[in-house]
Amino acid sequence: TAPAIAHADVSPPEVGAVCAAELDGAMTLLPDETTYVTCGQQPFAGFAWAAVQTPFPPNDSWLSYGPAITLHGQGMRNPNLSSGPWTATPQDPEATCRVTQTTVVEAGVLAAPEVSEGEPGQPLAVQMQPRLFYVELAGNCLWVKD
Q1: How far is CA 82 from the centre of its chain?
Q2: How far apart, in Å, do the first and last CA atoms of the chain sit?
Q3: Between the CA of residue 9 and those of 61, 66, 67, 139, 140, what are the distances in Å?
Q4: Which residues of 75-106 are buried (b: 16+ CB within 10 A; e: fewer)?
Q5: How far apart are CA 25 and CA 104, in angstroms?
Q6: Nearest to 35 by CA among 13, 17, 18
């Protein structure tokens, strides 16, 4: 079993809820595991979370808010994010950022998951693999492609 990710009780984003201007352009996956939302400027409302139609182009900024969110990489059709260097920044001093990557070895065969975890309150630099099938982002962290 994987070690628990240390995080305070962070409320998951909700459609229409206010989001910080620093999260402009960031996306996340809601707890229903089907609704994607993005933080952006809303007419007459400041910054708020808005639902996104699928499929959408890969996004370069993702928010995980504690429990892992599972996204698709470039080893699948309609990836949520692209491979390359990423940095996860904790959104509070106790948050620990963690990523679990599962890549495609060949058709129908996946590699063993690869886990990277940062220190509490510290950024985590990670290389998202080229044939990424699934990626789990965990911790109250903002993940940005470098």
Answers
A1: 12
A2: 31
A3: 22, 8, 10, 11, 9
A4: beeebbbbbeebbbbbbeeebbbbbbbbbbee
A5: 28
A6: 13
Closest among 54, 100, 60, 103 to 78, alpha carbons compared: 54
User: What local confidence, expressed as pLDDT, does residue 9 receive?
Assistant: 63
Whether the predicted model's global pTM rises above the 0.85 cut: yes
CA distances from 101 to 10, 81, 129, 132, 133 (A): 23, 12, 8, 7, 8
Report whether pLDDT(6) > 50: no
Half-sphere exposure of 94 (CA within 13 A, CB side): 7
> 121: left (phi > 0), else alpha (psi -120 to 50), else beta?
left
